[in-house]
Specification:
179 residues; mainly alpha; rod-shaped
């Protein structure tokens, strides 16, 4: 009977030890998951904050240099029949320094609708940059007046869409950087 009691005691002790190991492993796993979620949340907030700063800087530069007014004035003068060269502002962009491009593989981790809107915003900014590079190279000066008018109108429409979208994206990024 002592042997049976000892065997039962050993089985119970082993069962208790096994349950403790299972519970300990589960608690550890939940802890790791909680840390991963915190890290992901922090990374998402940091990315949103950095993108917010970049979007605000882009809009600030555009507004501080009054680029829209410059192009609108050029369009107005061309529409009046004046021979006006296209503006040359020595416009350069370097995507390699962009927060957006250096974190492109992580943009999808941001809350909806930020990824889709960030891609659109980046595209519109690149269209504006391409237009300005053409102006800087004098390519637009070779166009006939109606073509120049059409090009400037398109540039201004793209510019206005970019600024409106930038403000919208900034609002989403502001929220995501605080969640």
């Amino acid at each position: 009977m002592d042997i049976i009691n000892q065997n039962i005691g050993a089985v119970v002790a082993a069962g208790i030890g096994l349950m403790g190991a299972i519970i300990g492993a589960a608690i550890t796993q939940f802890g790791v998951l909680a840390l991963d979620r915190r890290r992901e949340k922090r990374d998402c907030q940091g990315l949103a904050s950095a993108l917010l700063a970049e979007v605000k800087a882009m809009v600030h530069v555009e507004e501080a240099h009054s680029y829209r007014a410059l192009y609108q004035d050029t369009l107005t003068r061309i529409n009046k029949g004046k021979a006006v060269p296209m503006p040359n502002i020595s416009y350069e962009t370097n995507p390699a320094r962009s927060v957006y491009y250096t974190n492109l593989s992580h943009i999808g981790t941001l809350p909806v609708p930020i990824p889709e809107k960030m891609v659109r915003l980046s595209y519109e900014y690149e269209v504006i940059a391409a237009d300005r590079r053409c102006m800087d190279k004098g390519e637009w000066n070779t166009q006939e007046q109606p073509q120049r008018i059409t090009m400037l109108e398109h540039h201004l429409k793209t510019y206005d869409a970019f600024v409106a979208l930038a403000h919208e994206v900034a609002g989403h990024l502001e929220t995501a950087s605080k969640k």
